[in-house]
Amino acid sequence: MDKDLAFLKVQTKLGYDFSGDIKIGGKYSSLIEHNGLVFISGQIPRVGDIVHVYGKVGLDVDVSQAQLAAKISTMRALAILKQHYATLNVIEKVLQMNVFVHSTAAFIQQSEVSDGASEILYEILGCETGQHTRTSVSVYQLPKNASVEINFVFAIKA
Q1: Which residues lie in coiled coils (predicted)?
Q2: The whole model's pTM is what?
Q3: Which burial class, exposed, middle or buried, applies to 124 when counting CB atoms under 10 A from its CB (0-12, 13-18, 19+)?
Q4: Which domains does the chain possess?
Q5: pLDDT per position as a tens digit, 17-59
């Protein structure tokens, strides 16, 4: 399966363009590679200058909107990889994904929100490469009032 083609199909289906610069908000790197591992810093559901899903999940945002936020955040991470390596076909395995959900104290569906991100990984990378470990937690606030932030660890082919 060509992961780059799958990325473009998902991008079209979602209706967002991830080909532009991926902006960061400080003095850090969005990608660091070390010994065959690639660490992607936390990604929020921002495309260009616009955060597309913001507010507290369970109050301002429902589960399906939060899943969209997780999908956009995941697409941003994959776009960073694609821009850095010129292809997603270098990905050997998704090792870890940590999902932070800006939610109310009563909201308990963080895992269901994370499913949006997992779906994107499986759809683009396939079941074997896209299978990953995952942590889903509720947080009080996220940058730019985003509803979701996700960071990743990938293994890259030698």
Answers
A1: none
A2: 0.96
A3: buried
A4: 3-10+29-141+149-156 (3.30.1330.40)
A5: 999 888 777 889 999 999 999 999 999 999 998 999 999 999 9
